[in-house]
Sequence to fold (278 residues):
Amino acid sequence: VPFLHEMAKRKISDFEGFQKVLNGAKNITVLTGAGVSAESGIPTFRGEGGWWKNYRSADLATPQAFQSNPALVWEFYNYRRHVAFSAQPNNAHRALAEFEKKCKQEGRKLTIITQNVDGLHKRAGSENIIELHGALHKTICTNRKCRFIDENYDDPICEAFNGRGDVNVQDDNSPVVMKEDLPKCKKCNSLVRPYIVWFGENLDHEVLRKSRELVETCDLCLVVGTSSVVYPAAMFAPLVAQRGMPVAEFNITDEPAEQSFAFHFPGKCGTTLPKALG
Ligand code: BV8
Ligand code: ZN
Fold:
C-alpha cells in the first residue's frame, strides 16, 4: 500500500524530527528489552543466544521447571548471573543514564521500565528504573511464611556450582547438584529461588500499577531492543501510541513493530540511541 509505505518511510531514521519531539517532552518513558544488553555480550531470548546447554531458556524460566528440577533451574540462573555480573553496560545504557541526568536538571522526568533482569541500567548510572521481571542479583525465600528477599552478587551463588559458572556446553556430564546444596534463606534456611517473574507468573502488582500510570501519563515513549512478544510489557508502547503520543522504536529490525509508532531507528541501539539522545 503506497500510502502506508510512504508513511512508514517518513518515520524511519528521522533523527531531526525525533529531537524536536524529544526536546519538548516532559515525562519520558523508556521500555527496554534484551536488545539493549546485546552489545554487552548478554544473549537475547529469541536470538541464537536463547539457548543454554540443550534447553530453550524460556522452558527453564517457569515455576513448573523449578518445582520439578530446582538444581537445573538454579544452575541456569547461576550461569545467567555469571554472564550478567561479568558484563559491562554499553553505550545504549550509558546514553540513557546521561539523558536521565539532563532531564533531571531541566525539571523533566525520565523513567526506564525494563524487562531485563541483568541490572545493567543501574550499573550504568540510571536511577528511575522499574524492573518488570525482577533481577538476577535478588533471591526470594520459597517459604510462604518467610518470603525474605535478599540481594547478592556472589558468583557462583553457592559452593555447589563452583567451576560451573559459565558452563554452557551441551553434554557436560557433571552430576546435578543435590537439593540440600542449593542456595538457602539467611532467615529460615529454606530453599530460595531467583527473584524473577517466570512465564505464567503474575508481575508484582505495585510494579504493574506504576508502569500503567507511566503508560497513561508519558508524553513520549522510547521502546528499545524488544521483540514485544511477552505480555504485559508488549502492550505498553502500543497503549502510548493509542493515546496519540509519539513512540520511537530502536531495533535492529528494519520495520517498526507497529505502524502506529511515530519513529523507527533501525540499527544497533548502542549506535542509534546515543545519536538520537545526543
Ligand atoms: C503474566 C524473566 C498473568 C525470565 C521474562 C500461556 C501460558 C502462560 C502464560 C501465557 C500464555 N500465553 C501468554 C502468556 C503470557 C506470557 C507471555 O506473554 N508469553 C509469551 C511468550 C506469549 N506472559 C507471562 O507469563 C507474564 N505473566 O502474563 O501473568 C498470567 C498468569 C498466568 C497465566 C497467564 C497470564 C510473565 C512474563 C515474564 C516472563 N519473564 N523474563 C528470565 O529472564 O529468565 S520474559 C523475557 O522475555 C524477558 O524478560 C523479556 O521480557 C521477554 C522478551 O524478551 P525481549 O526482552 O523482547 O528479548 P528478545 O530476545 O525477545 O528480543 C530482543 C529484541 O532486541 C529483538 O527484537 C531484536 O531484534 C532486538 N535486538 C537485538 N540486538 C539488538 C536489538 N535491538 C537493538 N540493538 C541491538 N544491538
Ligand atoms: Zn526464609
Remarks:
- The chain has ten helices and eleven strands.
